[in-house]
Amino acid sequence: xxxxxxxxxxxxxxxxxxxxxxxxxxxxxxxxxxxxxxxxxxxxxxxxxxxxxxxxxxxxxxxxxxxxxxxxxxxxxxxxxxx
Length: 83
Description:
Elements: H1 2-50, H2 68-77
């Protein structure tokens, strides 16, 4: 009867150890996956920053207004005022 309890205890302890080992393996795998994802995100951010992209709002381009000299050149070239 004493031997039966020790066998049950050993089996329970073995099950607990197996469960703990499996949980540790899952944690290690998740850690490795997160490290890979972190490296990937760092590379993406570095490429964006080196590529000239910013996180700010896009700037609208303003229309270039013609200077009087440019206007005169266009009139003399016949580009403006054609009827």
